[in-house]
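Why show two proteins at once? Because comparison is the fastest way to build intuition. When a single record is shown, students tend to memorize it. When two are placed side by side, the eye starts asking what differs. So, the first record is below.
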Amino acid sequence: MDSRSFARTFLAVVGVALASCGDPASEQIAPLDCIMDTGTSQIPTLIPAPAGYSVKYEVTGSGAGTITKIIYRDGTSTPVVVENPVLPWTETVILYPDMDVGIGMEGSVSNGRFEMKYNGTLNSSSGGSIGAKVSGNKVCEQQLRSSTTVD
């Protein structure tokens, strides 16, 4: 093999090797499915009737992703479904002892974070304990590492 043939072969091999090396930050990462819920629990019965909890449901997000559905409990027997919500999303309901509280969501995140939560406090006008609270939260997150070069 002469030196020019060797040089062409070497350059071809190096070219193929370099072409197959991609920038990790530019590679497509599959979105992470965010199908989750806080679980369903009952409002405590340790408060005198007709005391109720003011429960605020919230879903927030940042980065790249989509939420297709939010499902929450409002005291009726059937959960409420919100299709394609706009974030940030909030809803406040009044729940009474033995009613279910909880929130869920469906969506996906490719480079970002979603958080859903609920916080409930006993209505002060209902005469119950001021410190009585209910809460729950879940996070779905996928962060891509970005590559940087230093000269």
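Second record. Ask yourself what differs from the first in the token line.
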Amino acid sequence: MNYVFTDTHCHFDFPPFSGHENESLALAAQAGVRRIIVPAVTADRFAQVLKLAHEHEPLFAALGLHPLYIAQHQDEHLELLAECLTARPGKLVAVGEIGLDLYMEEPQFDRQQTLLKQQLGLAKRHDLPVILHSRRSHDQLAAALRRADVPRRGVVHGFAGSLAQAQAFIRQGYYIGVGGTISYERAQKTRSVMAQLPLASLLLETDAPDMPLAGYQGQPNRPERAAEVFQALCQLRPEPPDEIAHCLQKNALSLFALER
């Protein structure tokens, strides 16, 4: 059966997709990946992400200031984000990629938390969901989300935390992003978590060109491999593939307010 997927997290504004957009989208479509959410990571990429979404029907934009680039972000970048959200160009569907990261060197964590709070405030003001990055910071992120109370909620992408941490996000109404990590047999904790969570709380993603799947180590990840993430998930779940595909797609369309 031919399934239809949404890759809810793909950095399509980076190589190897830059300059090869049409062929990359054709490969994705052949695998059933009909929609792709492209989250920006720095202010200097906002215009390109919006341009890609405008020019290519399958692409949708998210704008945000990523915690890994905390040393680059300036006050004027937050102002630019606010201006873009106020303008609300077509196909802008989320604030992201934003979040917290305690894995990086020199995390400037207080500044990260301030920037996250400001961006969650913008998402709330503009009634948009958020796409969240979290490494070794799930508990702090969950606390920040409780304080912010973003009405449209969002997704904790590329999740690799514990079952209890995932459940804490789900209780607040957030989705959990399922990526290529589950294709690795050694990732037993993450595979076990994704097997146990409610299907209604999961979203499919690649994080391309990052997070390559098993068998593709050393190669850039690609959006068409969302179909392979789906296959890996089907091996872990008790539900039939038809039900899993339908629910994943329904979740994506609902969160990002995409037309069916």
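One difference worth noting in the second protein: Strands lie at 5-7, 33-39, 59-63, 92-101, 130-135, 154-156, 175-178, 202-204.
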